[in-house]
Amino acid sequence: MAVQVRVPTILRSYTGGSKVVEGVGDTLAALFIDIDSHFPGLRGRLVSEDAGELHRFVNIYVNDEDVRFLGGLDAKISDGDTVTILPAVAGGSAMMPATAGI
Amino acid sequence: MLRIDRAIYEAIIAHARRDHPDEACGIVAGPAGSDRPERFVAMENAERSPTFYRFDAMEHLRVWNDMEERDEEPVVIYHSHTATEAYPSRTDIPLAQEPGAHYVLASTRDPEKIEFRSYRIIDAVVTEEPVEIV
Asked: Is the pLDDT of residue A21 over 70?
């Protein structure tokens, strides 16, 4: 068994067009490293290398829970879970800090 | 070009007016690949701000799951600017991450005359497009 990862349209260039890919890992961090070994570059769109944290403008869910409330990259993952990636829909008329690196 | 039903156009403007002076946001879903905005969904602005918007993370997941079950996609993603023109800001552009969507901006800065404009935003390149209300 593995974990299913649902990939949003804008990141499917990394997965050869696949909407869903599979990976393994006990934590979200480990899962993203595994996925990146099959689909190089994908992890960099989700995790900031400098800070080792999730990018601010990407939402990640384990099953139906927002990982921000599950420990972020330390969130525990089990076989059979579904991880969903959704780029935040955000913006506004004023300058928002930290929009670099999207 | 964006073709949009008058009732949906009016629903977007009504939402923008209702939430003024905060920014309002939402989507219009349509059958995948159709380019037809048919199902209006007003979203909560989790920022509740006159200068920023962000879809609430849980509502975002729920609405995107609903669209997947219905074989829909977000044909329109809209938000309002409440004190500036209806043009994508320097914040809006790098955050536009739905390459298939029409990005609609409505400005409520003049309450008598709401601006309603539509754009494609792909790889941070903004292209305005005509809007036809049918």
From this structure: yes
